[in-house]
Structure formats: C-alpha cells, structure tokens
Amino acid sequence: MFLDVLNDNSFATNCWLVAATGSEEAVVVDPGFSPERVRALLEAAGKRPAAVLATHGHFDHIGAAAELCGDDLPFYVHEADRAALTDADAWGAGYEAPAVLVKDVRTVTDGDVLPFGGFSIEVLHTPGHTPGSVCYRTDGWLMSGDLVFAGAIGRSDFPNSSPADMTASLRRFLALPDALPVYPGHGPDTTVGRERRANPFLLEP
Ligand SMILES: [Zn+2]
Questions:
Q1: What dotted CATH number matches 2-198?
Q2: 3-state secondary structure (DSSP) of residue 90
Q3: Distance (Å) from CA 23 to ligand 1 centroid
Q4: CA dist., res. 119 & res. 16, Å (int)
Q5: 8 Å CB contact between 55 and 27
Q6: Within the chain, which residues score under 50 in pLDDT?
Q7: Which of 84, 117, 122, 146 is at 20 to 30 A from 162, Cα to Cα?
Q8: 58 CA → ligand 1 middle, Å
Q9: What is the pLDDT of residue 88?
Q10: pLDDT digits over 120-146, tens only?
C-alpha cells in the first residue's frame, strides 16, 4: 500500500496520504496545511486524490480541506464534528480558526465502510477528544487521530471534549489486536500492543 505523511507544520499534525498499490486513487486524511504540497506528493507518486477524510474537526486537521477539495472532492467527517467546519471558533481548541467552507461534505458514522480504489476504510466512532472523533481502519492499520499517540493520548479538556467518552473510546482501542499498526494524528507510528504495554495513560489502575 502507498502511504506517505506530511507533518512539518507548527502543530506537527500528520496529514496521511493513502492509496492501494497499483491504483491511482488516493485518499487524504487530515489535511491541516499545505494543500499544494499534498498535491505535489500525490502527483510525484502517480496518484490523484479521490476523497479527503477528517479524524475530527479541529483546525489543525481540517484547515486545508476546502482548498484541497475544491469543487469536486468529497470530504468525510463524523456528523458530530460537522459543526466545526462553520463554527471553528466556538468549537475551539484554544486558538483562532477560520471557517472551513468545504462544498461536498459527507458525514460518516460508526461502522460505515468507505470503498476506494483497491481498498476500503472502516469508520470507528471514538469520541472524547471531540464528539465526532473517529479512527479509520483498513485491513492493515488504524489511523487513530487524536485518540491515541505513541506514549500519550489526546486531550479531553476542551469545551466539547468528554473525559467519560474518552475512557470508553480508549477501551475500544485496547480491544483491537496487538499487531495492528497505528498511525496517530501527531507524532510517530506505533502499534496497539506497544501502547497497551507502555502507554502510561492506557495502563489499568
Ligand atoms: Zn484535535
């Protein structure tokens, strides 16, 4: 599978580029910044974007979505985070953010399976960091957004975070197979097993 990441922005947010080997059709997950660099990377790899997905509605994950989607590309976000597109300020993660006026918004919910060229992505609703935070899962990996990072977890102290939901979502993460690679919204890759063993925020009391 083709997988690339772009993360040299001030939030160190990972923007993931995904495509099946041998397919031109790519998916962009969490385009916070640098839409022109996303396009250039895809072009260099012989891929063209088919859809843009958000793990949640914080601006550092969706900021470039409108520019990247333009008139044609669909943008997928959980229904509970859709409001972040037009009300980023009130929705806030503690910094000022303009509206992200994507034209073709498609909401997803838990259990949805999104088919793309040569692979599909399953939606796991994992609220807590935001009400509409999701993880995206394929046969080969999980994109955990701001639920779980290598050695850390996402914040659940924003105005519309929920610590109780976060706890339930982390339990759901821990039910996944140890060997599953995890690509977080910030920082380096990990696996479910590594986080189960070593993440201080996931150790049972
Ligand atoms: Zn976030």
A1: 3.60.15.10
A2: helix
A3: 30
A4: 15
A5: no
A6: none
A7: 122
A8: 5
A9: 73
A10: 999 999 999 999 999 999 999 999 999
In this predicted structure, what is the pLDDT of residue 98? 85
Whole-number Å distance, alpha carbon 72 to ligand 1 midpoint, is 26
| Ligand 1 centre distance from Cα of residue 103 (Å) | 22
Q: How confident is the model at residue 204, as a pLDDT?
A: 66
22 Cα: distance to centroid of ligand 1 (angstroms):
32
Return the pLDDT at 93.
65
Strand locations in the chain (E): 2-6, 15-19, 25-29, 48-53, 75-78, 105-108, 113-116, 119-125, 134-137, 142-145, 148-149, 152-153, 181-184, 190-191
Alpha-carbon radius of gyration of the chain: 16
